[in-house]
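Suppose a colleague, Dr. K., hands you the sequence of a protein chain of 512 amino acids and asks what its three-dimensional shape might be. Before reaching for any lab equipment, you can write down a predicted structure in C-alpha cell form. Begin with the sequence itself:
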Amino acid sequence: MTLQRQPIRLVDTSLRDGNQSLWGATGLTTGMVEAVGPHLDRVGYEAIDFTSSTNLSVGVKWHKENPWERISRMRDVMPNTPLSAITTGMRFMSWEKAAEPVMRMALRLMASHGLRRLQIAEPMNDLDALLRVAQWSKEEGFETVVAAVTFTESPVHTDARYSHNIAAYAASEYVDSVYVKDPGGLLTAERTRQLIPGVRTAAGSKTLELHSHTTTGAASHLYLIAAELGVDVLHTGLGPLSNGTAQPSLENLLTNLDALGIPVQVDRDAAAAAADVLYSIARSQGLPAGVPTEYNLSSHVHQVPGGMMGTLIRQLSELRMLDKLPAVIEESGRVRADLGYPIMVTPFSQFVGSQALMNVLAANSGQERYSRIPDEVVRFVLGHFGTPEGEIAPEVLDKISRLPRARELAEPPAEKSLEQLHEDYSARLGRPLAEEELLLRIVLPEDLVDTMLAAGSAPRWSAGGVVRTGKAVASISEFIRAAHELPNWKYLAVNFGTEKVELHRTVNEGTS
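The predicted structure, expressed as C-alpha cells, is then:
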C-alpha cells in the first residue's frame, strides 16, 4: 500500500513532555539534555518540544539549575533545530495568573536565550486570549507561533467549535502553524476520522500538527490515520521517554509509516544515537522507560493527562500513599464535572488533581468533600482564569462563595509596572537586578532563587553517566562529598584506583 503525500515531519517531545509524563518532570538535568542535544540536532526534526513553565520551575526547585542557562546551553549544541516551549499564555512558573508585563518579559527572555518556537495551548480554548498571546510572542522575538485547540470530551465541547478556532488561528498573521493537542490521550481511531477532516479544511494552507498521548493505547494507531488524512507534523517521543503516558515512539512510528508507504525524512542513525544516550540516563538514574500501553478506555472517564499522571505518582510516592492513586484518579473525574468540565491541561489539570487529592485525604479522615479547597480552585470558581464552558455545580459554587478566603481573593492585587518591580527588588537586595533574576524572584519563592544562584553553573553529563564537576578529588571521602552536590542521581558505581564505590541515594518521606 502506497499513499501519495508530502513526507511527514516530526516534533520530538522527549525532553519536555516525555520527561514530565514519565519522570515527573524531575528526571532530566541541564547536563543531560545538553548531552543528547547534538544527536537530536542531526535527526531532522521540525522542532524540539524542549521546555515549559513547569519544566523550568522544576529545574530550579529540584536541581538548583538556572533555567536561562539550560536554554542557552541547549541552543549552543543544537544550532540547526528550533527549540520550542509550550505555554498557556496566562502564567509563568507560578500558578498565579501573570500580569501582561510579566508574561511579556517571560516571552522576551525565553526568545532571547534561544527558544525560536512557541506552542500556545490556551486552557479554555479562548480564541481572543490565544491570539493576544500570539501577538505578544511575535513582538517579543519568537520566530514561529503554533496555536492549539485542546481536545477534550465533555457535554459542552464540540468539533464545530474546534474547527471554528482553527480557522481563526489560520487566518491570523501572528500564527504560523496550528495543532490539535490531546493531553489526555482521548482521541480514538474513530474520533480521529471524525475530527481531522474538518480541522484540516479549517487550517487551509497552514501546517497542521497532532499531539497525543499513548495513555489509552490508541495513539500509535490514530497517528497513522492522521497521516492518511493530511496531518503534516506528528509529535513523538524517543527511546525511554516515549509510550506509557507520553507520546508514541518514533521507532515504532517509522516502522508503521514504512509499512504504509508514507514518506518521512529523518536520520535514523542519529535518532538511534540519541535514544542510546536517553537509555544511559535512565539506567544511571534508576528511571523507568515508558512501555507500550494496552488499550484502556478508563481515561475517557477521568481524563487525567500524562504529565499530571506522572506528577500525581511522584507526589503520592513521596507521601507513601501510592495505593491511593486509583481513588484520586476516580475523584478527578467527579471534580472536573463539578467545576464545569475544564479542559484537563495545565494549569487546570493541576487544580483538579490537587482538589481530588484533598478530597480523598478528607474522606480518609472522615471529612466531607471540599472540606479543604486550594486557593487556585477558589480563583478558578471566581472566574480569575476565564469562564468555563460548563456550569459549576451549585453546591460547590455555594460552598466556595461563603469562604472567607473567597472574599479575600475576589479582588486581584493591583499590578505593578516593571519599573516598580525593578525598584522594589533592587532596593530590597541592595543591587540592580538583570531581568532574568528579577523574573525568577517575581514568580518563585526567593529562597529557591538564592539557592539556585549559589549552586553556580549546572554540571555536565556524559553518555557514560560520568558527571564532570570541574574539580579533582583526592580521596573517596572527597568524592562522596562532591557526589552529593550533583543533581538528583539515585545510583552511582565508580572505580577509584583499585577500590569500587557504590552510592545509593534515597529520598526521605515528605521531601521533594
